[in-house]
Design a protein that fits this description.
alpha+beta, Helix Hairpins, nine-stranded antiparallel sheet, two-stranded antiparallel ribbon, 31% strand, elongated
Length: 278
């Protein structure tokens, strides 16, 4: 026979987990790049239990960034970043900037990854360009063509103050390509393509720190993404305030009912003990 007291205690614990996830969502509704907590529940003979807790990978709205180097990813996928130990992780927050040495980095100093391009805009594999058709076909089919990524560097020549010694400015365009420009824009040369990866099961990525994820056995290996990169923008949180307020009210109601059930069961237990001892 089901124990109503145990059922109520299990429901209380699950509801508190739910409230914690909702509260984090509401706090981060305006945090750039934040991924919303989603919590599913399963029912069983002993009450309810969190079935899965994962980060929603739905699209957040674009917003003007704080610098031209900031980028916004429209569509599925993640930017690829590498820390000082060489460990790769993934993020949706494109609040990147070039540091004093011309290296493209995150706000916490991790290096944004990309591909070196030749003058024709072809991705280079060592000393040879990769066939564009192969890369495109892999992208469209979610393929896993593995091309080594590299740091994106636009060092400034101290002798003339130009990027890479010959470009007056740079521009990141919608295809995720970093262009060097010279001669008042008449010269426009592709230099790097920002690397974008996706996963067959991105909900199963593990969040090692806020807004940064690593692959797991459940997420699968990274594959080429079809997402489009836009310069000068960043992605905002994908957590909506209104929806989470409604969920919070529902969870609070559920918790109140559960607390009353627990209190009632305690009173009944106390009365039963008093009757037995009288």
């Amino acid at each position: 026979m089901n124990d109503s007291f145990i059922n109520a205690l299990n429901t209380q614990v699950a509801t508190r987990h739910w409230i914690t996830g909702i509260t984090e969502n509401m706090i981060n509704c305006y945090t750039p790049g934040y991924r919303e907590n989603k919590i599913n529940f399963k029912t069983y003979m002993g009450g309810i239990d969190p079935d899965s807790v994962y980060k929603s990978q739905s699209q957040g709205k674009s917003n003007p960034g704080t610098a031209d180097e900031n980028v916004y990813l429209e569509g599925k996928g993640f930017f690829v970043i590498r820390n000082e130990q060489g460990r790769i992780s993934y993020t949706r927050l494109g609040e990147f900037k070039f540091d004093g040495e011309g290296v493209y980095k995150t706000s916490d100093g991790q290096r944004v990854q990309g591909y070196i391009l030749n003058d024709k805009g072809e991705i280079m594999q060592g000393t040879k360009p990769m066939d564009a058709d192969i890369f495109t076909e892999s992208t469209l089919n979610g393929g896993s063509v593995q091309i080594p990524t590299t740091d994106i560097k636009l060092w400034i020549d101290p002798s003339n103050g130009k990027y890479l010694g010959k470009y007056d400015e740079f521009k990141i365009e919608g295809d995720g390509i970093v262009y060097g420009k010279a001669d008042k824009g008449k010269v426009k040369t592709p230099l790097y393509k920002i690397a974008i990866m996706n996963f067959h099961n991105p909900q199963e990525l593990f969040e090692i720190k806020p807004l940064q994820f690593i692959e797991t056995a459940e997420s699968g290996k990274p594959v080429v993404s079809t997402g489009e990169v836009r310069g000068g923008l960043i992605e905002m949180s994908n957590a909506g305030l209104g929806g989470n307020v409604n969920f919070f009210k529902m969870a609070q109601t559920q918790l109140n009912v559960t607390n009353k059930l627990i209190q009632t069961n305690k009173q009944l237990l106390q009365e039963a003990i008093e009757l037995m001892s009288s």
